[in-house]
Design a protein that fits this description.
alpha+beta; 9 strands; seven-stranded antiparallel sheet; Protein Transport Mog1p, Chain A; 3 helices
């Protein structure tokens, strides 16, 4: 090829590459949500999700996209039945199966566990941290078609939602409940095949 023909070829190839490359999008911007009652903190993509009002008991919050298809829920609850982290994880796995979820990922660390998979056409990702006598939970749910778009926000939110980032909760002891009115759920056994 002549130098001018070679230059035209590379210009043409570069133009094709530019057309085939996915469009660049602006980086997500993040805000922190801090729960004073249970002392946890989580970062959420504020350009993607809007916070909904706190529930009456101030245990957490929901963050929802404009179209309502992407939801992040964060909440905490006292460990009234003194479950171990493994027992709580098995309870979540059992409930996931009952909800017709297909669990594709289940891992645990010293203070946390994570479960992920599919419910219908949606992906869900749950991380639960046991800290100061309470289970602190974060759950993402979004369309599977948004997987690539959601990888970075889910990763960042998950990393921010860790016990080492939590503070001392304002309310430090669980409410007194009458034992006769609280029935423990049936004994949970490990679910195999996940």
């Amino acid at each position: 090829m002549k130098p001018s023909a070679l230059a035209r070829f590379f210009a043409f190839a570069l133009a094709l590459f530019a057309l085939a490359a996915p469009p660049m999008r602006a980086a997500d911007s993040y805000r922190s949500y801090a729960n004073a009652r249970f002392g946890y903190v989580v970062e959420y993509p504020s350009n993607l999700l809007s916070p909904r009002p706190d529930p009456y008991n101030s245990d957490g919050r929901r963050f929802v996209s404009r179209d309502g298809k992407i939801v992040l829920r964060v909440y905490a609850g006292y460990n009234l039945f003194n479950y171990t982290l493994a027992q709580q994880q098995n309870f979540v796995l059992k409930n996931s199966k009952a909800a017709k979820a297909r669990v594709t990922y289940s891992r645990a660390g010293p203070q946390w566990f994570a479960v992920s998979g599919f419910i219908g056409g949606d992906i869900f990702y749950q991380k639960t941290v046991l800290w100061k006598g309470a289970f602190h939970t974060m759950i993402w749910r979004y369309p599977a078609s948004q997987r690539k778009r959601m990888d970075a926000p889910v990763t960042r939110t998950t990393r921010s939602f860790a016990a080492e980032n939590f503070a001392v909760p304002v309310v430090s002891s669980p409410p007194k409940a009458a034992p006769a009115k609280i029935a423990a759920p049936e004994k949970v056994t490990p679910v195999k095949g996940y």
